[in-house]
Prior knowledge:
Shape: globular
Mean pLDDT: 88
CATH topology of the domain at 250-390: Dna Ligase, domain 1
Number of strands: 12
Structural class: alpha+beta
CATH superfamily of the domain at 250-390: DNA polymerase, Y-family, little finger domain
CATH class of the domain at 250-390: Alpha Beta
CATH architecture of the domain at 250-390: 2-Layer Sandwich
Strand content: 15-25%
Helix content: 25-40%
Radius of gyration: 25 Å
Number of helices: 14
Order of helices and strands: EHEEHHEHEEHEHEHHHHHEHEEHEH
Largest sheet: 5 strands, mixed
Amino acid sequence: MKQPVFALVDCNNFYASCEKLFRPDLRHTPIVVLSNNDGCVVARSKEAKALGIKMGVPVHHIKQEIRQHDIQLFSSNYTLYGDMSHRVMMTLEAMAPRVDVYSIDEAFLDLTGLERLMSYENFGRQVKDTVYQNVGLPVCVGIAPTRTLAKLANYAAKKYPATGGVVDLTDPARQRRLLARVPVGEIWGVGRKISEKLQAMNIVTAIQLADADLSTLRQRFSVVLERTTRELNGVPCLPWDDTPQPKKQIMCSRSFGQPIHSLANLEEAVTHFATRATEKLRGGGQYAGELMVFIRTNPFKTTVPQYSQSASVRLVKASQDSRVIVQHALNLLRSIYRDGYEYSKSGVMLGELTDASGVQDDLFDTAPTIPSASGRSERLMSVMDEINRKTPAKVYMAREAGPAVYAMRRGHLSPAYTTAWGELPVVW
Length: 428
Protein backbone atom coordinates (compact mmCIF):
# COMPACT_ATOMS: atom_id res chain seq x y z
CA MET A 1 0.00 0.00 0.00
CA LYS A 2 1.33 3.43 -0.99
CA GLN A 3 2.28 5.93 1.69
CA PRO A 4 -0.26 8.76 1.50
CA VAL A 5 1.04 12.28 0.96
CA PHE A 6 -0.91 15.47 1.60
CA ALA A 7 -0.36 19.11 0.72
CA LEU A 8 -1.89 22.01 2.61
CA VAL A 9 -2.31 25.12 0.47
CA ASP A 10 -2.98 28.23 2.56
CA CYS A 11 -3.48 31.77 1.25
CA ASN A 12 -1.24 34.37 2.88
CA ASN A 13 -3.09 37.07 4.86
CA PHE A 14 -6.15 36.17 2.80
CA TYR A 15 -8.55 39.06 3.50
CA ALA A 16 -5.77 41.64 3.29
CA SER A 17 -4.37 40.06 0.11
CA CYS A 18 -7.82 40.21 -1.54
CA GLU A 19 -8.03 43.93 -0.77
CA LYS A 20 -4.50 44.62 -2.05
CA LEU A 21 -5.06 42.68 -5.26
CA PHE A 22 -7.21 45.43 -6.74
CA ARG A 23 -5.24 48.29 -5.16
CA PRO A 24 -1.70 48.07 -6.54
CA ASP A 25 -1.05 51.52 -5.08
CA LEU A 26 -1.19 49.85 -1.64
CA ARG A 27 1.24 47.04 -2.50
CA HIS A 28 3.72 48.03 0.23
CA THR A 29 1.29 49.87 2.52
CA PRO A 30 0.14 48.41 5.87
CA ILE A 31 -3.57 47.58 5.79
CA VAL A 32 -6.01 45.98 8.23
CA VAL A 33 -9.44 44.48 7.65
CA LEU A 34 -12.09 45.16 10.29
CA SER A 35 -14.83 42.99 11.79
CA ASN A 36 -18.57 43.61 11.54
CA ASN A 37 -19.46 47.22 12.33
CA ASP A 38 -15.78 48.13 11.84
CA GLY A 39 -15.06 47.16 15.43
CA CYS A 40 -11.89 45.04 15.65
CA VAL A 41 -8.97 43.97 13.49
CA VAL A 42 -9.62 40.55 11.88
CA ALA A 43 -6.87 40.53 9.23
CA ARG A 44 -3.55 42.25 8.71
CA SER A 45 -1.11 42.60 5.85
CA LYS A 46 2.49 41.61 6.50
CA GLU A 47 3.38 45.30 6.81
CA ALA A 48 0.74 45.78 9.54
CA LYS A 49 2.00 42.70 11.37
CA ALA A 50 5.54 44.13 11.27
CA LEU A 51 4.22 47.24 13.02
CA GLY A 52 2.96 45.09 15.90
CA ILE A 53 -0.77 45.39 15.14
CA LYS A 54 -2.44 42.52 17.02
CA MET A 55 -5.30 40.35 15.83
CA GLY A 56 -8.61 41.23 17.49
CA VAL A 57 -7.53 44.60 18.84
CA PRO A 58 -10.36 47.21 18.85
CA VAL A 59 -9.70 49.75 16.12
CA HIS A 60 -10.09 52.70 18.51
CA HIS A 61 -7.13 51.36 20.49
CA ILE A 62 -4.75 51.80 17.54
CA LYS A 63 -5.79 55.27 16.34
CA GLN A 64 -2.30 56.65 16.99
CA GLU A 65 -0.61 53.86 15.00
CA ILE A 66 -3.08 54.35 12.14
CA ARG A 67 -2.19 58.05 11.89
CA GLN A 68 1.52 57.56 12.47
CA HIS A 69 2.04 54.81 9.88
CA ASP A 70 -0.79 55.70 7.46
CA ILE A 71 -2.44 52.30 7.96
CA GLN A 72 -5.31 51.83 5.52
CA LEU A 73 -8.60 50.44 6.88
CA PHE A 74 -11.05 48.15 5.07
CA SER A 75 -14.46 46.91 6.16
CA SER A 76 -15.02 43.16 5.75
CA ASN A 77 -16.09 42.50 2.15
CA TYR A 78 -17.32 38.91 2.41
CA THR A 79 -18.73 38.88 -1.12
CA LEU A 80 -15.28 39.62 -2.51
CA TYR A 81 -13.51 37.14 -0.22
CA GLY A 82 -15.98 34.36 -1.02
CA ASP A 83 -15.57 34.83 -4.77
CA MET A 84 -11.77 34.93 -4.57
CA SER A 85 -11.82 31.78 -2.42
CA HIS A 86 -13.91 30.03 -5.07
CA ARG A 87 -11.35 30.96 -7.74
CA VAL A 88 -8.48 29.60 -5.65
CA MET A 89 -10.28 26.32 -4.99
CA MET A 90 -11.21 25.89 -8.67
CA THR A 91 -7.53 26.32 -9.57
CA LEU A 92 -6.49 23.70 -7.01
CA GLU A 93 -9.15 21.23 -8.19
CA ALA A 94 -7.69 21.46 -11.71
CA MET A 95 -4.24 20.51 -10.38
CA ALA A 96 -4.94 17.65 -7.94
CA PRO A 97 -7.16 14.53 -8.18
CA ARG A 98 -8.75 15.17 -4.76
CA VAL A 99 -9.21 18.42 -2.87
CA ASP A 100 -10.64 18.85 0.63
CA VAL A 101 -11.58 22.50 1.22
CA TYR A 102 -10.79 23.07 4.89
CA SER A 103 -11.70 26.75 5.21
CA ILE A 104 -12.22 29.86 3.10
CA ASP A 105 -8.47 30.23 2.53
CA GLU A 106 -6.97 26.74 2.80
CA ALA A 107 -7.39 23.28 1.32
CA PHE A 108 -5.75 19.85 1.55
CA LEU A 109 -4.63 18.10 -1.66
CA ASP A 110 -4.10 14.36 -2.02
CA LEU A 111 -0.70 13.89 -3.70
CA THR A 112 -0.36 10.13 -3.22
CA GLY A 113 1.68 8.64 -6.09
CA LEU A 114 2.78 12.01 -7.47
CA GLU A 115 6.48 11.20 -6.95
CA ARG A 116 6.38 9.09 -10.12
CA LEU A 117 5.81 12.26 -12.17
CA MET A 118 7.76 14.98 -10.34
CA SER A 119 9.19 15.86 -6.97
CA TYR A 120 6.80 17.05 -4.30
CA GLU A 121 8.69 20.32 -3.90
CA ASN A 122 8.48 21.06 -7.63
CA PHE A 123 4.76 20.39 -7.55
CA GLY A 124 4.37 22.70 -4.57
CA ARG A 125 6.11 25.49 -6.45
CA GLN A 126 3.93 24.80 -9.46
CA VAL A 127 0.82 25.17 -7.28
CA LYS A 128 2.15 28.39 -5.77
CA ASP A 129 2.95 29.90 -9.19
CA THR A 130 -0.31 28.76 -10.81
CA VAL A 131 -2.55 30.19 -8.09
CA TYR A 132 -0.69 33.49 -8.28
CA GLN A 133 -0.87 33.48 -12.08
CA ASN A 134 -4.59 32.61 -12.23
CA VAL A 135 -5.94 34.45 -9.19
CA GLY A 136 -3.26 36.90 -8.10
CA LEU A 137 -3.10 35.73 -4.47
CA PRO A 138 0.06 34.47 -2.73
CA VAL A 139 -0.07 31.04 -1.08
CA CYS A 140 2.25 28.78 0.90
CA VAL A 141 2.38 25.01 0.47
CA GLY A 142 3.23 22.40 3.11
CA ILE A 143 3.70 18.76 2.04
CA ALA A 144 3.87 15.73 4.37
CA PRO A 145 2.62 12.16 4.93
CA THR A 146 -0.09 13.29 7.39
CA ARG A 147 -2.40 16.27 7.63
CA THR A 148 -0.95 17.41 10.95
CA LEU A 149 2.59 17.37 9.52
CA ALA A 150 1.33 19.15 6.38
CA LYS A 151 -0.04 21.90 8.64
CA LEU A 152 3.35 22.07 10.34
CA ALA A 153 5.12 22.21 6.97
CA ASN A 154 2.86 25.09 5.94
CA TYR A 155 3.71 26.87 9.20
CA ALA A 156 7.41 26.58 8.33
CA ALA A 157 6.79 27.75 4.74
CA LYS A 158 5.29 30.96 6.11
CA LYS A 159 7.73 31.50 8.97
CA TYR A 160 11.00 30.94 7.11
CA PRO A 161 11.37 33.09 3.94
CA ALA A 162 14.32 30.99 2.73
CA THR A 163 11.88 28.16 1.92
CA GLY A 164 10.30 30.22 -0.84
CA GLY A 165 6.85 29.39 0.50
CA VAL A 166 7.09 25.61 -0.06
CA VAL A 167 8.22 22.97 2.47
CA ASP A 168 8.40 19.23 1.76
CA LEU A 169 8.34 17.17 4.97
CA THR A 170 8.14 13.71 3.44
CA ASP A 171 11.69 12.96 4.69
CA PRO A 172 11.54 11.67 8.33
CA ALA A 173 14.87 13.29 9.22
CA ARG A 174 13.60 16.67 8.06
CA GLN A 175 10.42 16.14 10.05
CA ARG A 176 12.44 15.62 13.23
CA ARG A 177 14.53 18.74 12.65
CA LEU A 178 11.45 20.92 12.24
CA LEU A 179 9.61 19.33 15.17
CA ALA A 180 12.53 20.23 17.43
CA ARG A 181 12.15 23.93 16.52
CA VAL A 182 8.37 24.32 16.76
CA PRO A 183 6.60 25.21 20.05
CA VAL A 184 3.98 22.67 21.07
CA GLY A 185 1.29 25.38 20.93
CA GLU A 186 1.75 25.72 17.16
CA ILE A 187 0.60 22.15 16.48
CA TRP A 188 -2.75 21.83 14.74
CA GLY A 189 -5.40 20.90 17.33
CA VAL A 190 -3.31 21.85 20.39
CA GLY A 191 -5.09 24.84 21.90
CA ARG A 192 -3.94 27.22 24.60
CA LYS A 193 -5.27 25.18 27.54
CA ILE A 194 -3.82 21.89 26.29
CA SER A 195 -0.54 23.65 25.53
CA GLU A 196 -0.32 24.94 29.11
CA LYS A 197 -0.99 21.46 30.52
CA LEU A 198 1.63 19.92 28.23
CA GLN A 199 4.21 22.52 29.23
CA ALA A 200 3.51 21.70 32.88
CA MET A 201 4.55 18.14 31.93
CA ASN A 202 7.79 19.52 30.39
CA ILE A 203 6.46 18.95 26.88
CA VAL A 204 7.45 22.27 25.32
CA THR A 205 8.31 21.47 21.70
CA ALA A 206 6.57 19.45 19.00
CA ILE A 207 9.26 16.78 19.07
CA GLN A 208 8.74 16.25 22.79
CA LEU A 209 5.06 15.64 22.11
CA ALA A 210 5.92 13.27 19.26
CA ASP A 211 8.15 11.26 21.66
CA ALA A 212 5.64 11.26 24.54
CA ASP A 213 4.02 8.06 25.79
CA LEU A 214 0.74 7.51 23.93
CA SER A 215 -1.09 5.78 26.75
CA THR A 216 -0.24 8.63 29.13
CA LEU A 217 -1.54 11.21 26.65
CA ARG A 218 -4.76 9.25 26.14
CA GLN A 219 -5.27 8.91 29.89
CA ARG A 220 -4.54 12.55 30.78
CA PHE A 221 -6.10 14.19 27.73
CA SER A 222 -8.06 12.29 25.06
CA VAL A 223 -7.80 9.99 22.08
CA VAL A 224 -7.75 13.12 19.91
CA LEU A 225 -4.35 14.20 21.25
CA GLU A 226 -3.12 10.63 20.89
CA ARG A 227 -4.07 10.75 17.19
CA THR A 228 -2.31 14.09 16.81
CA THR A 229 0.83 12.57 18.28
CA ARG A 230 0.65 9.58 15.96
CA GLU A 231 0.31 11.97 13.03
CA LEU A 232 3.44 13.82 14.18
CA ASN A 233 5.21 10.48 13.82
CA GLY A 234 3.99 10.06 10.24
CA VAL A 235 1.02 7.76 10.91
CA PRO A 236 -2.16 9.06 9.15
CA CYS A 237 -5.11 9.03 11.55
CA LEU A 238 -7.45 11.64 10.03
CA PRO A 239 -9.67 10.22 7.27
CA TRP A 240 -9.89 11.97 3.91
CA ASP A 241 -13.15 13.85 3.64
CA ASP A 242 -13.90 15.63 0.36
CA THR A 243 -17.67 15.57 0.94
CA PRO A 244 -18.97 18.42 3.14
CA GLN A 245 -20.78 17.15 6.21
CA PRO A 246 -24.43 18.19 6.57
CA LYS A 247 -24.84 21.16 8.88
CA LYS A 248 -26.31 20.50 12.30
CA GLN A 249 -27.35 24.11 12.91
CA ILE A 250 -27.62 27.30 10.88
CA MET A 251 -27.16 30.65 12.59
CA CYS A 252 -27.72 34.10 11.12
CA SER A 253 -27.11 37.03 13.48
CA ARG A 254 -25.55 40.45 13.49
CA SER A 255 -24.74 43.42 15.68
CA PHE A 256 -26.55 46.52 14.46
CA GLY A 257 -24.76 49.58 13.17
CA GLN A 258 -26.91 51.69 15.50
CA PRO A 259 -29.14 50.82 18.48
CA ILE A 260 -32.73 49.78 17.70
CA HIS A 261 -35.49 51.06 19.96
CA SER A 262 -38.72 49.78 18.34
CA LEU A 263 -40.35 46.43 17.74
CA ALA A 264 -41.05 47.32 14.10
CA ASN A 265 -37.36 47.77 13.31
CA LEU A 266 -36.47 44.59 15.18
CA GLU A 267 -39.08 42.74 13.14
CA GLU A 268 -37.39 43.89 9.93
CA ALA A 269 -34.03 42.66 11.19
CA VAL A 270 -35.32 39.28 12.40
CA THR A 271 -37.21 38.79 9.11
CA HIS A 272 -33.99 39.40 7.22
CA PHE A 273 -32.01 36.97 9.39
CA ALA A 274 -34.71 34.30 9.16
CA THR A 275 -34.83 34.68 5.37
CA ARG A 276 -31.06 34.40 5.01
CA ALA A 277 -30.90 31.37 7.32
CA THR A 278 -33.64 29.65 5.32
CA GLU A 279 -31.82 30.36 2.05
CA LYS A 280 -28.77 28.58 3.46
CA LEU A 281 -31.04 25.77 4.59
CA ARG A 282 -32.39 25.26 1.07
CA GLY A 283 -28.90 25.54 -0.37
CA GLY A 284 -27.94 22.44 1.61
CA GLY A 285 -31.15 20.58 0.75
CA GLN A 286 -32.17 20.54 4.40
CA TYR A 287 -35.29 21.19 6.49
CA ALA A 288 -35.45 22.75 9.96
CA GLY A 289 -37.43 21.21 12.80
CA GLU A 290 -36.59 23.81 15.42
CA LEU A 291 -36.22 27.59 15.49
CA MET A 292 -34.66 29.94 18.03
CA VAL A 293 -34.68 33.76 18.13
CA PHE A 294 -32.62 35.96 20.46
CA ILE A 295 -32.30 39.69 21.13
CA ARG A 296 -29.95 41.58 23.39
CA THR A 297 -28.69 45.00 24.36
CA ASN A 298 -25.02 46.02 24.33
CA PRO A 299 -23.37 44.37 27.38
CA PHE A 300 -20.41 46.74 27.11
CA LYS A 301 -22.56 49.86 27.37
CA THR A 302 -23.04 49.88 31.12
CA THR A 303 -24.75 53.29 31.22
CA VAL A 304 -28.02 51.92 29.78
CA PRO A 305 -30.42 49.22 31.08
CA GLN A 306 -29.48 45.68 30.02
CA TYR A 307 -31.78 43.01 28.62
CA SER A 308 -31.13 39.68 26.90
CA GLN A 309 -33.66 37.00 26.03
CA SER A 310 -34.29 34.13 23.66
CA ALA A 311 -37.18 31.85 22.75
CA SER A 312 -37.52 28.71 20.67
CA VAL A 313 -40.21 26.57 19.09
CA ARG A 314 -40.30 23.06 17.73
CA LEU A 315 -42.06 22.91 14.36
CA VAL A 316 -44.84 20.39 13.92
CA LYS A 317 -43.46 19.68 10.46
CA ALA A 318 -39.89 20.44 9.42
CA SER A 319 -39.79 23.21 6.82
CA GLN A 320 -37.52 25.09 4.44
CA ASP A 321 -40.18 27.63 3.44
CA SER A 322 -39.12 31.21 4.25
CA ARG A 323 -42.74 32.19 4.89
CA VAL A 324 -43.16 29.53 7.57
CA ILE A 325 -39.82 30.26 9.25
CA VAL A 326 -40.34 34.03 9.21
CA GLN A 327 -43.81 33.79 10.73
CA HIS A 328 -42.57 31.60 13.58
CA ALA A 329 -39.57 33.90 14.10
CA LEU A 330 -41.78 36.98 14.36
CA ASN A 331 -44.08 35.23 16.85
CA LEU A 332 -41.06 34.36 19.00
CA LEU A 333 -39.67 37.89 18.76
CA ARG A 334 -42.96 39.43 19.89
CA SER A 335 -43.07 37.11 22.89
CA ILE A 336 -39.67 38.24 24.19
CA TYR A 337 -39.59 41.88 23.14
CA ARG A 338 -39.64 44.44 25.94
CA ASP A 339 -40.06 48.15 25.36
CA GLY A 340 -37.60 50.74 26.69
CA TYR A 341 -34.27 49.11 25.73
CA GLU A 342 -31.55 49.87 23.19
CA TYR A 343 -31.17 46.61 21.27
CA SER A 344 -27.75 46.06 19.70
CA LYS A 345 -28.00 42.52 18.31
CA SER A 346 -30.47 39.84 17.29
CA GLY A 347 -30.30 36.53 15.51
CA VAL A 348 -32.06 33.41 14.29
CA MET A 349 -30.85 29.84 14.66
CA LEU A 350 -32.31 26.82 12.87
CA GLY A 351 -31.84 23.39 14.45
CA GLU A 352 -33.00 19.77 14.20
CA LEU A 353 -31.88 19.80 10.57
CA THR A 354 -32.76 16.89 8.31
CA ASP A 355 -32.96 16.03 4.65
CA ALA A 356 -36.23 15.40 2.76
CA SER A 357 -36.38 11.77 3.91
CA GLY A 358 -36.61 12.90 7.53
CA VAL A 359 -39.62 15.20 7.05
CA GLN A 360 -42.76 13.77 8.62
CA ASP A 361 -46.28 15.02 7.90
CA ASP A 362 -48.56 16.13 10.71
CA LEU A 363 -50.50 13.07 11.88
CA PHE A 364 -53.57 15.19 12.69
CA ASP A 365 -53.64 17.20 9.45
CA THR A 366 -56.05 15.40 7.13
CA ALA A 367 -56.40 18.12 4.48
CA PRO A 368 -56.19 16.43 1.07
CA THR A 369 -54.32 19.34 -0.45
CA ILE A 370 -51.25 19.02 1.79
CA PRO A 371 -49.03 17.13 -0.73
CA SER A 372 -49.73 19.62 -3.53
CA ALA A 373 -49.38 22.55 -1.14
CA SER A 374 -45.96 21.22 -0.12
CA GLY A 375 -44.96 20.93 -3.77
CA ARG A 376 -46.09 24.46 -4.51
CA SER A 377 -44.08 25.74 -1.55
CA GLU A 378 -40.88 24.12 -2.80
CA ARG A 379 -41.42 25.41 -6.35
CA LEU A 380 -42.08 28.93 -5.06
CA MET A 381 -38.92 28.94 -2.94
CA SER A 382 -36.91 27.54 -5.85
CA VAL A 383 -38.10 30.32 -8.16
CA MET A 384 -37.36 32.94 -5.51
CA ASP A 385 -33.82 31.62 -5.00
CA GLU A 386 -33.23 31.51 -8.75
CA ILE A 387 -34.30 35.14 -9.20
CA ASN A 388 -32.16 36.31 -6.29
CA ARG A 389 -29.18 34.37 -7.62
CA LYS A 390 -29.33 35.66 -11.19
CA THR A 391 -30.71 39.20 -11.06
CA PRO A 392 -29.81 42.38 -9.18
CA ALA A 393 -33.50 42.94 -8.36
CA LYS A 394 -34.20 40.89 -5.23
CA VAL A 395 -37.40 39.19 -4.11
CA TYR A 396 -37.83 39.49 -0.36
CA MET A 397 -40.41 39.07 2.34
CA ALA A 398 -42.83 42.00 2.74
CA ARG A 399 -41.77 42.54 6.37
CA GLU A 400 -38.15 42.83 5.26
CA ALA A 401 -38.31 46.50 4.28
CA GLY A 402 -34.59 46.94 3.81
CA PRO A 403 -31.34 46.95 5.80
CA ALA A 404 -31.06 50.71 6.35
CA VAL A 405 -32.05 50.62 10.02
CA TYR A 406 -30.19 47.52 11.15
CA ALA A 407 -27.31 47.50 8.63
CA MET A 408 -23.75 47.10 9.84
CA ARG A 409 -21.36 50.03 9.88
CA ARG A 410 -19.09 49.50 6.87
CA GLY A 411 -17.45 52.85 6.43
CA HIS A 412 -14.38 51.47 4.66
CA LEU A 413 -16.02 48.95 2.30
CA SER A 414 -14.20 48.23 -0.95
CA PRO A 415 -16.13 47.70 -4.22
CA ALA A 416 -17.51 44.32 -5.30
CA TYR A 417 -14.72 44.08 -7.88
CA THR A 418 -15.58 40.61 -9.17
CA THR A 419 -19.35 40.24 -8.71
CA ALA A 420 -20.98 43.52 -9.80
CA TRP A 421 -20.73 44.94 -13.33
CA GLY A 422 -20.93 48.51 -12.08
CA GLU A 423 -18.00 48.00 -9.70
CA LEU A 424 -15.49 46.33 -12.00
CA PRO A 425 -11.99 47.83 -11.62
CA VAL A 426 -11.14 50.37 -14.32
CA VAL A 427 -7.68 50.46 -15.91
CA TRP A 428 -6.68 53.73 -17.53
